[in-house]
Amino acid sequence: MRFLRDSAPAAEALYVLGDLFEYWIGDDGLGHPFARSIADAFRKLSDGGVPVSFMHGNRDFLIGNRFARESGMQLLSDPTLISLYGPRTLLMHGDTLCSDDVEYQKFRAMVRNPAWQQAFLARPLAERARMAQDVRGKSEQAKQVKDMVIMDVAPATVEDVLRSHAYPRLIHGHTHRPARHEHVVDGRLCERWVLADWYEQGSYLLCDAAGCRVVPI
Hints:
37% helix; five-stranded mixed β-sheet; globular; three-stranded parallel β-sheet; Purple Acid Phosphatase, chain A, domain 2
């Protein structure tokens, strides 16, 4: 809330690359006061003249048109290529880059299936909340035994993505391993920025004509 009130109004645009919420169980959850307060805060920023774009994360992939409309956000596909003060920049959530985590990729394919989503959203809101909390708990347990390398991006997949989009700058989140990386792909130097975890590592990425830099909160 402080960021949206004090920092974001000075921006020309704001991009949220997923996992805004710990989980999102459907836009009918907007009746909850917390969800409503977040939507209203983004709406105030948008109404103030700052375009806000949102890309689904692995935790809030069920955010839909109602939330986007009421929060004043534009929904982005993953990936999305933009021109960011000149340099072509590829925006991703980042979970598809973690291709070595086969178990997660199978789960992702299941929950992104429209039929699965339709069946899930047909359940009562309270039941969906219990299911989401159960999945989050199991996910945290699984992380304790998974190899850290498996949960990070696969270098070959990153290179394939950079190559297929003609060697852009890449910005993504998901891994909670904030850093700036350089990749040489087919003789081309590509920059990759990994966003920080919002509440534990406390920063955002600011990009302007001078380039990108991390701003602590």
